[in-house]
Specification:
- Chain B: It is found in: Cytoplasm.
- Chain B: Belongs to the eIF-3 subunit K family.
- Chain B: One of its GO terms (molecular function) is RNA binding.
- Chain B: Component of the eukaryotic translation initiation factor 3 (eIF-3) complex.
- The complex is a heterodimer.
- Chain A is mainly alpha-helical.
- Chain A has three domains: 108-410, no CATH class; 431-489, no CATH class; 493-519.
- Chain A has helices at residues 30-44, 48-66, 75-78, 86-103, 109-127, 137-159, 166-174, 181-195, 197-205, 225-244, 247-254, 264-267, 269-285, 289-306, 316-336, 345-362, 367-380, 402-428, 436-443, 447-461, 496-516; strands at residues 433-435, 462-464, 470-472, 476-481, 484-489.
- By secondary structure, chain B is mainly alpha-helical.
- Among the domains of chain B are: 2-99, Serine Threonine Protein Phosphatase 5, Tetratricopeptide repeat (Alpha Horseshoe), CATH 1.25.40.250; 173-228, no CATH class.
- In chain B, a hairpin with a 4-residue loop joins β4 (206-209) and β5.
- The longest helix of chain B has 16 residues, at 157-172.
- The chains are: A mainly alpha, B mainly alpha.
- At the A-B interface, α8, α11, α18, α20 and β2 of A face α3, α5, α7, α8 and β3 of B.
- β4 of chain A pairs parallel with β3 (173-177) of chain B, so a sheet runs across the interface.
Chain lengths: 520, 249
């Protein structure tokens, strides 16, 4: 169950006044007893299918029916039904706190700190390599996803100091070690290293190992938990680095995963979307608009085709939200760097429906344009965090927006520089050759300034891609011979290669399905 | 972890690769920045790690080191390192004033005035460089603090900017008039002649007689000679073709 990201953690803090009989942590309804007994048995039997059914279906149903606003029974209360198994209880608590984060509001610092301790214990057990379970990939992804989410949520929570009560501030001081950024990053890093996932992926490319082919599961009697957690931790690291504003390192963390192939990251739709969203966003901030556009296009097409199959799943809302955000990011990319042939028709139609007005505004580069860029960026960006612990002396302020404001500022600065160049674009589009003197006259600047501006255009339109090569993102280009500017327009041509590739894959899919049909 | 005492046995690159999220390596990373300046080397990952650690522990941030990192990043152009570093530096440390307002800025630390005017005197691409060089106002607990006057520009700064200027010129011009080139790299007279000779011998430049002055013909590449550009309209990047390998096999 992926928690929604856009919740604020409680408004005016009202201490949860539970009437004495409203929540009894030791009361275990019968349905919960059965749930725990069965889940424990399936985990021991390594029956991944059943675990998945109970995890996705059973847990959700019971939560909706019995625990809409209240926490599940405490781990101690359910211990008798699972032989007090230590690891099982860690998993149970993980679900408990996830449920609490989603449904209980406001959540105290004490609860958050306890959840942190639980994750530490759980990951420590996994890192020791003594876990012998096979868990569904959905659960393992949700674990990492939730881990990062709770970290982000805690940073936001403790950065809002203004309205906190004495009690809450004391709790923050008491639990100052909880969710510290070093711990979070080091656990994820440890999972990546201990699982040796980078080596596994390397060896897989040479055919020496089976990982993606088995969806990450281990059919030789071992456990998939460490390996798959290591894999998903790479995506977790990408996400955290984006939250910190370190896009370069984030992309480096993701490097072992080849986004041009299907992989374990595509199995769980939540992980697929999260990967591409953060990858695209990082590329956007690094001015690699073409790459970002390409990836957003692919994922948006994918969501368009397959979202109907996820309507019943608890992640559906999240999927839709990220879908909208990525359309916004795509609108930004295309306004900053117009492209003719990278977008699929269906995606393009959807984009026009949602953002046609805004995109026209943004491409005009006037004052209204900034408002549009601001709006879209603020809607679509991740919830940046300030990782350092709060300084708890007067005066208390809310500094949870600082990180976001910095990124927004730098982004708008980039937009502004594009504005300076839009003037020259409009002139250059009108001519195929023009002398520097004449153009300078039209633009009412002197020749030296014009040369500077032309250079700036080249500087802005050419960026360095991940391999260190210079890549042009301009839809038209020019070169200068002594005093004459020659403009070269790249004509939009039908890209047959891409079309054939898509059709080949589509037909292969269809053939596969036809072969599965059996006539009786 | 053993990395604390083994720090002398590991190079800084190893530390950054193996154990980057570790507050104990902060001092090593700072020393490494100074090393980069004195030995004219550069390592982006180490510098980003240091900026990250400053983010985690703002009390340990050293403005001097941050200034050095930024200038080294500037020297790495066209790589976007400068912007990457800016993403990690909190708002109150750098005031992103538009340089055209520089006269109205509160206080200009001597070093950045030096940088700014030096770069301006290169007289090239003012608009580019003005988009990259920011006024650097350091506010520390309310009192405006000047950067240590012993701060000097790292060695190789001028050459790096000149290399970048030439790079841009070769993206833009097939034939560039001598005065334009001279302005761009801030070299004139005999020094310029020697410079041209060197590049004619080593980088494939050709010096011709042009309309009003000498004209330098820059090497052909796909950016100043569009006909050289591989027709990418119909070509498909190799990585995309790998998508159908499972089908073809």
């Amino acid at each position: 169950m992926a928690a929604p990201y856009d919740r604020e953690d409680g408004l005016a803090p009202a201490p949860p006044q539970h009437a004495p009989d409203a929540y009894d942590p030791n009361y275990v309804p019968d349905s919960v007893k059965t749930f725990v007994v069965h889940l424990y048995r399936h985990i021991r039997d390594k029956n991944v299918y059943e675990i998945h059914q109970m995890y996705e279906g059973g847990f959700q149903r019971l939560s909706d029916r019995l625990f809409r606003d209240a926490p599940w029974p405490s781990a101690e209360a359910v211990a008798p039904y699972c032989d007090g198994d230590h690891v099982f209880l860690l998993l149970y608590r993980e679900l408990w706190y996830r449920h609490a984060h989603a449904r209980l509001s406001p959540l105290t610092a004490a609860h958050r700190a306890e959840s942190w301790t639980n994750y530490c214990d759980l990951f420590t057990v996994v890192l020791h390599g003594v876990v012998n379970m096979q868990l569904p990939n959905q659960w393992l992804w949700d674990m990492v996803d939730e881990f990062v989410y709770q970290f982000q949520s805690f940073c936001q929570y403790r950065a809002k100091l203004k309205n906190k009560t004495e009690d809450e501030l004391n709790q923050l001081q008491q639990f100052d070690k909880a969710w510290n950024v070093y711990g979070v990053l080091n656990y994820l890093q440890a999972l990546v290293e201990k699982s040796m996932i980078t080596q596994i992926l390397e060896r897989e490319k040479e055919g020496l190992e089976q990982f993606t082919a088995t969806d990450g599961y281990d059919y030789e009697g071992g456990s998939n938990v460490l390996k798959v957690l290591g894999y998903y931790s790479m995506i977790g690291l990408l996400r955290i680095h984006c939250l910190l504003g370190d896009y370069h390192t984030g992309l480096k963390c993701l490097a072992p995963i080849d986004l041009n192939q299907q992989g374990v990251y595509t199995i769980v739709i939540g992980s697929h979307i999260s990967t591409i969203y953060h990858y695209g966003f990082a590329n956007l901030m690094m001015r690699r608009y073409v790459e970002a556009t390409r990836e957003f296009n692919k994922i948006l097409l994918y969501i368009l085709k397959y979202k109907q199959y996820h309507q019943k799943s608890p992640q559906y809302d999240q999927i839709l939200k990220k879908n909208e955000q990525m359309y916004a990011l795509l609108a930004i990319c295309l306004s900053l760097c117009p492209q003719n042939k990278l977008i699929d028709e269906n995606v393009s139609t959807q984009l026009k429906e949602k953002y046609n007005d805004k995109m026209t505004k943004m491409q005009r580069y006037d004052d209204e344009a900034y408002a549009a860029y601001d709006e879209l960026f603020s809607y679509a960006c991740p919830k940046f965090i300030t990782p350092s612990p709060p300084v708890l002396d007067q005066p208390l302020t809310n500094y949870n927006q600082d990180a976001y404001r910095l990124q927004l500022k730098l982004f708008l600065y980039e937009v502004k520089q594009q504005q300076l160049l839009s003037g020259i674009r409009s002139y250059l589009k009108l001519y195929s050759t023009i002398t520097i003197g004449k153009l300078a006259q039209y633009m009412e600047v002197d020749e030296a300034t014009l040369r500077s501006i032309l250079m700036t255009y080249k500087h802005k339109m050419h960026s360095v891609d991940s391999d260190g090569k210079i890549v042009s993102s301009a839809d038209f280009d020019f070169y200068i011979v002594e005093d004459i500017i020659h403009i070269v327009e790249s004509k939009p041509t039908k890209s047959h290669g891409d079309y054939f590739l898509r059709q080949i894959l589509k037909f292969e899919e269809m053939i596969g399905e036809l072969e599965k049909v059996q006539f009786d | 972890m053993a990395t604390e005492q083994a720090a002398e046995n590991y190079t800084v690159e190893d530390l950054v690769a193996l154990n980057p999220y570790n507050p104990d390596i902060l001092n090593d990373l700072e020393k490494f920045v100074n090393e980069q300046v004195s030995s004219q080397t550069y390592n982006l990952d180490a510098n980003l790690s240091l900026l990250r650690l400053y983010q985690f522990e703002p009390e340990r941030m050293s403005i001097q080191i941050v200034a050095r990192i930024l200038i080294k990043a500037l020297m790495a152009m066209p790589a976007p390192d400068f912007s990457l570093c800016l993403f990690l530096i909190p708002e109150h440390v750098i005031d992103l004033t538009n340089v055209s307002d520089v006269q109205h800025a509160v206080l200009l630390p001597s070093v950045f005035v030096a940088t700014f005017f030096y770069v301006r005197s290169l007289n090239c691409f003012e608009s580019i460089l003005s988009s990259l060089v920011y006024t650097f106002v350091v506010a520390n607990g309310g009192a405006i603090q000047d950067i240590d006057s012993s701060f000097s520009l790292p060695g190789g700064f001028e050459q790096a900017i000149q290399t970048y200027a030439i790079h841009l010129l070769s993206l833009t011009y097939q034939k560039v008039p001598r005065p334009v080139l001279a302005e761009a790299i801030n070299i004139e007279g005999l020094a310029l002649d020697k410079f041209l000779e060197y590049h004619a011998a080593n980088s494939g430049w050709v010096i011709e007689k042009g309309g009003q002055s000498q004209v330098i013909v820059l090497p052909r590449n796909e950016f100043n000679h569009p006909e050289l550009k591989k027709n990418t309209a119909d070509s498909v990047p190799f990585e995309h073709v790998t998508r159908i390998f499972p089908v073809l096999s």
